[in-house]
Amino acid sequence: MDPVNIAAVTPKKNRLARAFTKVLHIRALTGITPAGDQHAKEHVQKPKIHDQVNHNSVKTDRCNSFDEDEKLRRKEVIEAFLAKLFSSISSIKAAYAEMQSAQSPYDSESIQSADEIVVSELKILSELKQCYFKKQIDDSSPRTTQLMAEIKEEKSLTKTLQIMAKNLDSEHKLKQSELTFVKEKLEEAKSENKLLEKRLNVSGPLSPLDNLHFSVISPNHFILVLRQTVKAIRNFVRLMISEMEAAGWDLDAAANSIQPGVVYSRDMHKCFAFESFVFQELFDGFNYPYFSISHESVSEKKRQRQFFDRFTAMKSQKMKEYLAWKPKSTFAKFCRTKYLRLVHPKMEASLFGNLSQRNLLTSGDFPETEFFSLFSEMAKKVWLLHCLAFSLEPEASIFQVNKNCRFSDVYMECLNQEAFLSPTGIVDADPRVAFTVIPGFKIGKTIIQSQVYLT
């Protein structure tokens, strides 16, 4: 090879190599790589992308952790708020129970204390309501608040249960006393049954009213009780007349004041005037339930059974014991009302020299005199007749014949047969009623005659 050519080529190659090296160096500084170096570029950039992803992941984890803590705290605050709400309600309930318990026996201090608690808790509830509506539910230590509220609620619940236990204990004692009383009445009933058995063995069969059942009552039972009632009233009238005679009363004037202008066939018939007065006063209001002195509400369907039950419970009672046992009963009120209407204050003062019996009755007590004892037995018979009248189907109704009405065999029974004869001995076909002594009754188609005195 020619040496000159070699010398000429070598410097040219050296210059090309330096120029290529320089270009590569510039591209490396500016980030431009040849196509063949694309893989090298990607290898350089990948670590930077990975670092960015790691940074964002750390940031997201921190945000999620903060949200979870905030939700947990919010939940604790709400639970504390609800705990305070329910504890206040429990406190009000306990205070109300205490207030009710303090009514009987009356305890003013306990009532005032319970009232203050109610007012205080209502204020707390009002504050909680305002916080809820204004969305100001916040608490620096919700767990502590919740625990304190739960403790408060448990105390209120314990207090309520203690009051309930106290009330139940009082009711238990009351039931025990009632049980003792019922046991005593049972022993009395057993004793009375033994006496009745002895009387039965001596006197024979029982009365038709004994062991009477609601399903078999009839007008015949009513007639039987009516006869007993008439007998009791006539016994009382005899006692009243004897007391009037002992006190120096003018019986003719008294009879004339009750039934003016009546001419009696015999002097002994004047007692009918006194009987008519007693019957009229005692049977006034007979057609109304409980003589209108009581307004007990009961359905029409149950009323008959209720009256029969009262008839059954009353017929074997002794009046002195019954009135002492139930001084505020409807029958006791009936006794007071009828006595005060039947026995005028002037009459009582004249017969007994004072008004002690009337004063006892108006004060709520009952006299223990023979006069009132006979009166109460008479009132009992009238009351039993009244109860039996409303036990029947249809109910028994009372009627009374007016003065100067014509005599009727259907509705009337004459107490003085002499009225049918004129002074000349001729039969009078048209006698008139002077007054009704014993009223009559009507039960469906059954007529129980009234007893009248004719003129």
From TrEMBL:
Matching InterPro entries? DUF641_pln (IPR006943), GIL1-like (IPR040225), GIL1_IRKI_C (IPR056813)
Q: Does the keyword Coiled coil apply?
A: yes
Alphabetically sorted, this entry's keywords are: Coiled coil
Give the superkingdom in one word.
Eukaryota
The chain's coiled-coil residues are 172-199
What region holds the GIL1/IRKI C-terminal domain? 398-453
Q: Where is the DUF641 domain?
A: 74-199
Q: Does the keyword Amino-acid biosynthesis apply?
A: no
- One Pfam family cited in the UniProt record for this chain: GIL1_IRKI_C
Q: What Gene Ontology terms for biological process does this UniProt record contain? A: negative gravitropism; response to red or far red light
What is the official name of this protein in its record? DUF641 domain-containing protein
* Species of the source: Heracleum sosnowskyi
